[in-house]
Design a protein that fits this description.
Largest sheet: 2 strands, antiparallel
Mean pLDDT: 81
CATH architecture of the largest domain: Up-down Bundle
CATH superfamily of the largest domain: GntR ligand-binding domain-like
Order of helices and strands: HHHHEEHHHHHHHH
Oligomer: single chain
Distance between the termini: 41 Å
Shape: globular
Number of strands: 2
Helix content: over 70%
Number of domains: 2
């Protein structure tokens, strides 16, 4: 397991706000000291915000950082749970994500996501599909908050990755999400995740979810490819 000072280097990304970094490192210190033990549920965002004297959005962003580094995991409807610090012994996820360009990211998603949805349709249990539906319901409640919609979008895909039953695919997709959280993703969110775009995405994910629940592999794979094409068009506009 890494020493605490080695892990905190992962939060040196200059795109992070100072307060978010402080909250992330504070929570990491509590995990390192085993104030929050492995598999223990963290206090709610509201509780942490009150304890640390910051906004809930700040806590949420700090939890995003910890989740991307594999220190915690989120369960829709249940909260955040400690996973530990040993996961990044051989690969520095922060470094890989920082070195990934938008084009690199789209290439990786094009390779991974169609196969991921195919395997998930075969392997997901009814309970896992129900959990995915809960994430979709939360997405459909968002109207204007681009950051919150992007967070839930990541969680939707993460649940699909885990639903494949393949831990290597799930780990690879955690890295994809870490890359998506780089500064260029935030800029894309501000520019393109308008209320109209959010509505369009909500319709897409609703359709995708329906194809998944129907175990319609062909349609689900095609919808996944269509979304990737649309995002590629947006990326080309940004360039």
């Amino acid at each position: 397991m890494r020493r605490p000072e080695q892990v905190t280097v992962l939060f040196a990304d200059q795109s992070l706000g100072a307060t978010v970094r402080i909250v992330a490192e504070t929570l990491l210190a509590r995990i390192t000291s085993q104030e929050y033990a492995v598999d223990e549920r963290l206090p709610s965002e509201r509780t942490l915000a009150g304890e640390l004297g910051v906004a809930r959005n700040t806590v949420r962003e700090a939890l995003d950082v910890l989740e991307n580094q594999g220190v915690i995991r989120r369960r829709a409807g249940s909260g955040s749970f400690v996973t530990g610090l040993s996961r990044h012994e051989d690969i520095d996820v922060g470094d890989v994500a920082a070195e990934t360009s938008p084009l690199d990211l789209q290439v990786m998603r094009g390779i991974l996501e169609p196969e991921m949805i195919r395997l998930a349709i075969i392997a997901m249990s009814p309970r896992e599909i129900e959990t995915l539906g809960e994430v979709l319901s939360a997405m459909e409640a968002v109207t204007t908050d681009a950051s919150e919609f992007a967070r839930l979008e990541d969680e939707f895909h993460r649940q699909i990755a885990r639903g494949t039953g393949n831990p290597l695919i799930a780990a690879c997709y955690d890295l994809v999400i870490a890359a998506r959280h780089q500064a260029f993703r935030a800029a894309l969110n501000r520019r393109f995740l308008t209320p109209k775009r959010i509505q369009d995405c909500q319709r897409y994910y609703n359709t995708l979810f329906n194809t998944l629940t129907a175990r319609d592999i062909e349609s689900a794979v095609e919808f996944t490819k269509l979304l990737l094409i649309e995002e590629q068009k947006l990326l080309m506009q940004e360039d």
